[in-house]
Design brief:
alpha/beta, 7-stranded parallel beta sheet, 284 residues
Length: 284
């Protein structure tokens, strides 16, 4: 049995889909199982990181688990407690979704958010794998509404380039680590094949859709308002803004070959992602 936490999120939902397609026994952890849209045969269970009995029930009989911790400075040790609880209940293989830049001082507070969880994972035994993805290609799904309205799409990182990665690649590495032993003890920094900026992505999407994709740069104050309105704490907002500034200054241009190392094939490009998702943007 494989437990997937964050089972309805960007990566978790794709991990669930790929595991189910392989015929694996999958248990999907979500706060609202009655609303979860899952592949046939997947067991949906209710769970919350603040409710230990629900987590204990979800972990019962589980052999491997995909862990998506609470992101932000207000984590309060929940990520670590989830890892400790998983080990205490007999889960032998753990795969943690972390983030690029974890543990690097130049990433500021953002680089510390996943660090306690990573440290707890490494300290507890050999069968762990850590995934540190760069910026997701799917972040541009948020452009769909603006494009439909004929408006420019938001550019929050200027001309800063990032190793934009396809979430399907991240999920595929997670599935490989959950179902085999070759990736035990590995930390993978997962990126696409090139470092590209938001204007680069807009240009690619424009070519794929056959129509212009214009960008606009919101002010820092506007970004702060939007992040605060999303429910983030003031400390988390400042952490996100700091991360955006790092990207804006070309501080996240890292490109690795770790997808190829893990999967034996090259990482998908942003163009491949855009071609496969152009229907979301009204493309034929």
């Amino acid at each position: 049995m494989i437990l997937v936490t964050g089972a309805t999120g960007t990566i978790g939902s794709e991990v669930v889909r790929q595991l189910a397609a392989r015929g694996e026994k999958v248990r999907a952890l979500t706060r609202a199982p009655e609303r979860a849209v899952l592949p046939g045969g997947v067991e949906a269970v209710r769970g919350d990181f603040l409710d230990q009995p629900s987590l204990e029930a979800a972990l019962a009989g589980v052999d491997a688990a995909f862990l998506v911790g609470v992101l932000g400075p207000e984590d309060g040790g929940r990520d670590v407690r989830l890892i400790e609880l998983a080990r205490a209940t007999g889960v032998r293989r753990l795969v943690k979704l972390s983030a690029i830049g974890t543990g690097e001082p130049r990433f500021g507070p953002f680089g510390t958010w996943h660090l306690p969880g990573e440290q707890a994972l490494r300290a507890g035994g050999p069968e762990w794998t850590i995934l540190r993805p760069s910026s997701f290609a799917s972040n541009t799904l948020g452009w769909a509404h603006a494009l439909a309205a004929g408006e420019p799409v938001p550019n929050m990182t200027g001309d800063g380039r990032q190793g934009v990665v396809d979430p399907r690649d991240v999920a595929e590495v997670a599935v490989a680590a959950l179902t085999g032993t070759r990736h035990a003890g590995r930390t993978y920094t997962l990126t696409g094949p090139e470092a590209i900026s938001v204007p680069d992505q807009a240009a690619v999407l424009a070519e794929v859709l056959g129509r212009p994709v214009r960008t606009v740069t919101p002010s820092r104050d506007r970004l702060r308002e939007q992040l605060s309105a999303s429910g983030l704490s003031e400390q988390a907002v400042e952490g996100v803004l700091g991360g955006l500034e790092i990207a804006r200054g070309d501080g996240n241009t890292t490109v690795t070959d770790d997808v190829r190392e893990a999967l034996g094939r090259p990482a998908r490009s942003y163009r491949q992602w855009a071609e496969d998702h152009k229907g979301v943007f009204g493309g034929a």
